[in-house]
Design goal:
There is one protein chain. With 295 residues, the protein is of the alpha/beta class. It has a single domain, classed as TIM Barrel. It is 46% helix and 13% strand. It has an 8-stranded parallel beta sheet. Strands 2-3 form a two-stranded antiparallel ribbon. Strand 6, helix 4 and strand 7 form a beta-alpha-beta unit. The chain is globular and about 50 Å long.
Length: 295
């Protein structure tokens, strides 16, 4: 079986969307993008779950995609989050990503509707048949209530423009079964499993932790991909507490709180998300201090 070429690999950030007084804070967003370019992040992924796409208006979603693509200006690839539980709505977002020359799109499984495996297959096939752009499947059953079966991934892998899967089920078995059944490149979507998933054959990560410590995540991924397992293992050990700490409450609450502590954004969230509980905020601050990210 010829290996499907990895279009996207390395350390990719599932970017937060900074808000200020209810609007997207473009000044802070520029600062975050500059930070990632400086720290060596390989790919920027705006408007996903971590970017609070679920509470952005369609206009904000499109404007933010456009802003990021234009500001990055081909310095690194940009994969735009274009998921929806409404297939036609997802198509509109994917078409916009194509129009603004995004490098690819990240499309989460439709949430809430709980489609069957055949429904999932048809959702992605429909999008791929109408827009010629690299598509990354996104499996995160803890968020969506449905998981793409490895057999369905294998069916979808035969579509040329489906180039990878972001696997965030938290299951090594799921990733291993996908690898057994097809040659679709796998990207880790679960920060605490970045190292073991790359060791098992994943070609990169789409990381929440990279919002806060991009250079360390890049170091782990680069070392693991280069086969430097001792270096990767030591970075995995260093990053493990923050990989757990950024999920002690619903993502992106802790990530935005951490960036607020770092003075990079105003840690504003959109309801129904709200600020962290004080005891969890203290735990997060302790983790950040131990990493030397905040004083």
């Amino acid at each position: 079986m010829s290996k499907k070429r990895s279009v996207f690999e390395g350390s990719m950030v599932a970017l937060v969307t900074p808000f200020r007084n209810g609007k997207v804070d473009r000044k802070a967003l520029k600062g975050l993008l500059d930070f990632h370019l400086k720290e060596g992040t390989d790919v920027i992924v705006p408007c996903g779950t971590t970017g609070e796409s679920a509470t952005m208006s369609h206009e904000e979603h499109r404007d933010t995609m456009t802003f990021v693509v234009e500001y990055i200006n081909h310095r690194v690839p940009v994969i735009c989050g274009c998921g929806s539980n409404n297939t036609e709505e997802a198509l509109g977002l994917v078409r916009h990503a194509k129009k603004i020359h995004a490098d690819g799109v990240l499309v989460v499984t439709p949430y809430y509707n709980k489609p069957t495996q055949e429904g999932l297959f048809r959702h992605y096939q429909f999008l791929a048949s109408r827009v010629d752009i690299p598509i990354v499947l996104y499996n995160v059953p803890g968020r969506t209530g449905v998981s793409i079966a490895p057999e369905t991934v294998a069916r979808l892998s035969k579509i040329d423009t489906i180039v990878a899967i972001k696997e965030a089920s938290g299951s090594m078995d799921q990733a291993d079964q996908i690898a057994q059944l097809c040659d679709l490149p796998i990207l880790s979507g679960e920060d605490s499993l970045n190292f073991p998933l790359i060791a098992a054959g994943a070609c990169g990560v789409i990381s929440v932790v990279a919002n806060v410590v991009p250079k360390l995540v890049k170091g782990l991924v680069a070392a693991a991909l280069a086969g430097e397992m001792e270096e990767a293992r030591s970075l995995h050990k260093l990053l493990y507490p923050i990989s757990k700490g950024l999920f002690i409450e619903t993502n992106p609450i802790p990530a935005k709180t951490a960036l607020g502590m770092m003075g990079m954004i105003k840690p504003e969230l959109r309801m129904p998300l709200c600020e962290m509980r004080p005891e969890n905020k203290r735990k997060l601050a302790d983790i950040l201090k131990r990493l030397g990210v905040v004083k």
